[in-house]
């Protein structure tokens, strides 16, 4: 029943937003069968090739809401978003922005002797942005391997899934309904600090482990445990919409994910090549990153500021860097420049489109820094310790 409600919601959202036109907007006479409509959409989205995801593939996801071992209970539902395109030899099989539905299957509280709490998650299906439903049987747990040392208070972040075949109807890419429906009051927290040294045997026996908290922006990894055959997407089907300004050519040539001075992995640094043959002067101070929830992030003074304080007049070209501190590196973003007088956007360049052309070396570095956090330890609330 819940699956049907989600599917109906997607269809309704698509009908209301109509964000992408996959066909000629001029109306023509005649009647198309549902099979013909489906075939036309398949031709728009897919290359006609099929490939299998095998046991060596890992899907990176981030939850859409906070999962807290001290609050959540068994049976609580959640969604996790795929944060990287899952690729085969011929192209993308599961695109970034797909959502996995899951439930909390088990929680255990923190215990004495420094034993941390645990959360176990079960996944049952993935919905791609075009509306296809891919059944899966997946598990992810923060439990340690039984032979792991009790001194290592860290969490496993790899779950194992068994994926089935792809089924379901076809809709246009980049619908906005499901993301808005499942987004919640997520927040980003700092990585847990290492536990202090144990003072005396009595203190070590009394010491209680940490609760577990998985927040939006924290990446979990799901490893495929069997083969599943899927169609290959066309590159054009996965491109995000952009808004261009006549004569203003902006190319994003590199995208780096970085830590801020406080150790938070929350900074996106762009290398931007600008050729301004337009009728206006633009400035880095009039720029921002805007995500798919329309949250606006202005340039960060803690990152690279070369472009931030530079003005590019008509007839000028400029190559420089600019950094933005964001709340979640895994969202979709657009580099946006505004008219200083009326504050309206004049151009929007998709970070996701540009990221497809970034070198594999840079992508690996970005993946490494985003997944550097190896535990999901909840930071203690200092107010709870006050009697």
Quick overview:
It is built from six helices and 22 strands.
Please characterize this protein's 3D structure.
By secondary structure, this protein is α+β, with helices and mostly antiparallel strands. 15% of the residues lie in helices and 34% in strands. It has 2 domains: 211 residues, no CATH class; 123 residues, Sandwich (Immunoglobulin-like). Strand 8 and strand 9 form a beta hairpin. The chain is globular.
Shape: globular
Mean pLDDT: 75
Largest sheet: 7 strands, mixed, barrel
Stretches where pLDDT falls below 50 for ≥5 residues?
Answer: 8-28, 145-208, 382-387
Strand content: 25-35%
Order of helices and strands: HHEEEEEEEEEEHHEEEEEEEEEEEEHH
* End-to-end distance: 47 Å
Keywords:
disordered C terminus; 387 residues; 2 domains; globular; Immunoglobulin-like; alpha+beta; four-stranded antiparallel sheet; single chain; 15% helix
Secondary structure: elements and pairs:
Layout: H1 2-17, H2 34-45, E1 46-53, E2 58-63, E3 67-68, E4 77-82, E5 86-87, E6 92-94, E7 99-108, E8 118-127, E9 133-141, E10 158-163, H3 177-182, H4 200-206, E11 213-214, E12 219-224, E13 228-233, E14 248-259, E15 265-276, E16 282-283, E17 287-291, E18 296-297, E19 311-312, E20 317-325, E21 333-338, E22 345-350, H5 351-355, H6 360-370
Parallel strand pairs: 10-12
Antiparallel strand pairs: 1-13, 2-4, 2-12, 3-11, 4-7, 5-6, 7-8, 8-9, 9-10, 14-15, 15-20, 16-19, 17-18, 17-21, 21-22
């Amino acid at each position: 029943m819940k699956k049907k409600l989600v599917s109906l919601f997607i269809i309704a959202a698509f009908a209301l937003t109509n964000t992408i036109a996959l066909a000629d907007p001029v109306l023509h006479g005649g009647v198309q069968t549902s099979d013909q409509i489906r075939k036309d959409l398949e031709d728009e989205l897919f290359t006609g090739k099929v490939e299998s995801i095998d046991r060596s593939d890992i899907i990176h996801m981030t939850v859409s809401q906070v999962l807290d071992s001290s609050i959540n209970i068994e049976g609580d539902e959640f969604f996790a978003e795929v944060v990287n395109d899952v690729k085969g030899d011929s192209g993308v099989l599961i695109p970034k922005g797909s959502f996995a539905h899951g439930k909390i299957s088990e929680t255990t509280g923190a215990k004495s002797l420094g034993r941390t709490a645990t959360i176990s998650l079960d996944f049952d299906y993935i919905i791609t942005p075009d509306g296809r439903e891919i059944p899966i049987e997946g598990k992810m747990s923060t439990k340690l391997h039984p032979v792991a040392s009790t001194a290592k208070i860290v969490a496993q972040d790899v779950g194992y899934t068994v994926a089935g075949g792809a089924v379901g109807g076809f809709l246009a890419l980049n619908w906005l309904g499901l993301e808005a429906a499942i987004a919640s009051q997520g927040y980003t927290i700092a990585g847990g600090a290492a536990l202090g040294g144990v003072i005396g045997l009595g203190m070590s026996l009394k010491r209680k482990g940490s609760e577990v908290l998985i927040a939006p922006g924290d990446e979990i990894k799901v490893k495929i445990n069997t083969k599943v055959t899927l169609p290959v997407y066309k590159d054009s089907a996965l491109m995000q919409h952009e808004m261009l300004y006549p004569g203003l050519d902006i190319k994003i040539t590199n995208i780096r994910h970085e830590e801020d001075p406080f150790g938070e992995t929350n900074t996106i640094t762009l290398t931007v090549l600008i050729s301004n043959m337009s009728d206006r002067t633009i400035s880095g101070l009039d720029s921002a990153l805007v995500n798919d929830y329309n949250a606006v992030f202005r340039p960060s003074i803690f990152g690279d500021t070369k472009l931030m304080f530079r003005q590019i007049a008509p007839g000028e070209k400029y190559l420089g860097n600019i950094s933005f501190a964001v709340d979640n590196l895994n969202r979709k973003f657009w580099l946006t420049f505004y008219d200083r007088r009326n504050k309206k956007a004049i151009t929007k360049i998709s970070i996701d489109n540009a990221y497809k052309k970034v070198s594999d070396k840079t992508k690996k570095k970005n993946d490494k820094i985003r997944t550097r956090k190896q535990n999901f330890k909840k930071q203690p609330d200092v107010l709870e310790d006050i009697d």
